[in-house]
Amino acid sequence: MGAVSSCCESCFRSRRSQQYEPLLLENEREAVADLLQYLENRTTTNFFQGSPLTALTTLSFSDNVDLQRSAALAFAEITEKEVRPVGRDTLDPILFLLSSQDTEVQRAASAALGNLAVNTDNKLLIVKLGGLEPLIRQMLSPNVEVQCNAVGCVTNLATHDDNKTKIAKSGALVPLTRLARSKDMRVQRNATGALLNMTHSDENRQQLVNAGAIPVLVSLLNSMDTDVQYYCTTALSNIAVDGANRKKLAQNESKLVTSLVALMDSPSLKVQCQAALALRNLASDEKYQLEIVKADGLTSLLRLLQSTYLPLILSSAACVRNVSIHPQNESPIIESGFLQPLINLLSFKDNEEVQCHAISTLRNLAASSEKNKTAIVKAGAVQSIKELVLEVPMNVQSEMTACVAVLALSDELKGQLLEMGICEVLIPLTNSPSSEVQGNSAAALGNLSSKDGRIASDDYSAFNDVWEKPDGGMHRYLYNFLTSVDATFQHIAVWTIVQLLESGDPQLISNIRLSGLLNPSIRQLALSRTPSATSSVGTPRSHRSQSQSYADTDAGDGQGEIQLLARRILEFVDGDVDGGLPRSVAGSHMAGSSVSSARDEELRRSVREAFSSGSHH
């Protein structure tokens, strides 16, 4: 806001000696005298009511331009020192002055209005009384001081949500966009600040885009002024929330990513933070996920991720999470040195969102490559998860258990994960209050129990070790899921039991065969075709739940699949056995009459796909 710094009292005294004084109307002469007296006692005078306001109003509505100037200057100085909620009786004379043809009156009146617009009640009343129209006219003024004050006032008015749409529809956006290119840095700051304030709703963002703001904002990312950089970066971050706008940016703004990556190295922490957040929003799209890596954005993001300043950690972690969605970015992120910093952030107890972003990124990095899964386990991710998962917030538990479920898809890593004792923390979490945590934990246990090519040396003793403990062990967990009203949980249980029986481990087979807890429920499921409720697990409700998809293994008739799997279990439990396997089994896969081995392989493949290709989020 341009400051108005003239002394009203000396202004009045000097003008009393000028030639026009005899031409003053009587009420104007009295108003001048009264105002001079009030100004001498300004520290104890309330200029917003009573006689002081009457005197200012008389001068404001005078036909004498000099008196109008004096009134406008007085309002500017008074409001600079004190801002309070005011009524129409204060705003009307200021708005009248705002419509003056005199540049000095315009300058001072817009300064006064901008000062008053700091107050919330005043923001609404100014717009209600028609203040936008004269402000727009003044934004078009050739006078830089007038432009600066008018734009500054609009910036203040635009901080109130109730005003934003009215400003967007008032015709203010086109002159604001033009003034954002002003050579005067004060005007540029105020204009870009106003444009930023208009980016907080879908409708207003669209109006802004239609006014041609995008290329202006992008070009100003290269401004030397930190405030302008911040306003433009934040505005573009908000604009990039909308998919249609990201498409326009991708088509027309080829230098956007390069500019934002450069701003992550700005001396200003707030600019660094907003640049990372803008890239995070852009990275909702594949094109930008790849482009950020191509522009060497990972170097700056890694530095921000290791900062001690929470907003930088949070913004960079959110950005890396989105960038990691693209399978082609998995290896570059790992090779750039992100694994250890991400694992370190798993224990960042000051902020649950940081923990979620970190574990979700690790999960994405594990999605497509055996090599990456191995690197993640080798870096200590699973050990950290085991130590932390029972204590972290539920949202983080959901992400951590989903990550283990993805890692457990690797046949090469299953034994290693079992040796680490990961089952000891997964089993208690199958009884979590959160259905997502329950489903993810059970899915991880199911993946650990499953193997494409079984060999005699496969060690399933880890499942025997946790058969009865902790918290009732695998035994109690499987019973709880078999008797659940949720068909998805029933399906996970019977599928997992089939995997355990197929292991050929005599102790496991004996444990299942002799279980008075499990077998009655299995028999009931083998006979029943009564539809059950299906879980939300596998039906993502947000971007954080896309691989909790054991339901996706359920091809077509879910209840029929459960019945068939239950019958397969009974072939083990009730059939004559030879070395722990029913006579109808060839090799390690059951080829009984209930479900073909081809069907079994299809089921395994769909589980793998649910936890790999669908795991990016």
TrEMBL record:
KW Membrane (keyword) present: yes
Keywords annotated in UniProt: Lipoprotein, Membrane, Myristate, Repeat, Vacuole
- Entry membrane topology: Lipid-anchor
Return the Pfam families for the record: Arm (PF00514)
Tell me where it resides. Vacuole membrane
Q: Where are the ARM repeats?
A: 89-131, 130-172, 171-213, 212-254, 255-297, 296-338, 337-380
State a GO cellular component annotated for this protein.
fungal-type vacuole membrane
Chain segments annotated as transmembrane: none
Please give one Gene Ontology molecular function term for this protein: protein-membrane adaptor activity
Ranges annotated as biased composition (Polar residues): 529-551
Which GO biological process entries does UniProt record here?
Answer: autophagosome assembly; nucleus-vacuole junction assembly
Give the start-end ranges of region Disordered.
529-557, 583-603
Q: Cite the PROSITE patterns for this sequence.
A: ARM_REPEAT (PS50176)
Indicate the family of this protein.
Belongs to the beta-catenin family.
Reported function? Functions in both vacuole inheritance and protein targeting from the cytoplasm to vacuole.
* Name of protein: Vacuolar protein 8
Q: Which organism is it from?
A: Suillus fuscotomentosus
